[in-house]
Amino acid sequence: MTVKLGFVVAEFNRDITYMMEIEAREHAGFLDAEVADTIYVPGAYDMPLAIKKLLERGEIDAVVTIGCVIEGATQHDEIVVQHAARKIIDLSLEFGKPVALGISGPGMTRMEATERIDYAKRAVESAVKMVQRLE
Fold this sequence. Notes:
Layout: E1 4-10, H1 14-30, E2 34-41, H2 47-56, E3 62-68, H3 76-95, E4 99-100, E5 103-104, H4 110-115, H5 119-134
Parallel strand pairs: 1-2, 1-3, 3-4, 3-5
Pathway: Cofactor biosynthesis; riboflavin biosynthesis; riboflavin from 2-hydroxy-3-oxobutyl phosphate and 5-amino-6-(D-ribitylamino)uracil: step 1/2
Keywords: Riboflavin biosynthesis, Transferase
Binding site for 5-amino-6-(D-ribitylamino)uracil: 12, 44-46, 68-70, 101
C-alpha cells in the first residue's frame, strides 16, 4: 500500500521551509509514499485549519507539517510553536491519523534553522512509519 501524505508548509521563513519541503518530498519518494496534496499557510500558527481540511479528506493517510520558527526579541516564537504543536496533537487524536511535527524551533537562530532542515525528512519518516504500524 502506498501511503498518501498531505503536506502543510509554512511560508514564513520560506528560504528555509523551501529547502525543508524539497528534502521532505525526496524522502517521501524514497519511502514510496505519495504526496497527494500540499497546502501552503502563512506560518506555523496557521497550520491547524489546513491540517484539519486535509484530514477530512478520506484519501489522506497522514499529514506532515513543515515550518521554521526562529527566535525573535520576545518569546513570541515559543508561544507560536507551543500552541501549534498542541493543536497538531489534538487533530491527530481527533481524526485517528498521524500528523508529524516537522516544525523546527523555537529558540533557534537562522543558522541553527538551516542546520535543522532535515527535521522535514524526519517528519516524513515518522508519518509513514506511523501509518504502517497502525494498519
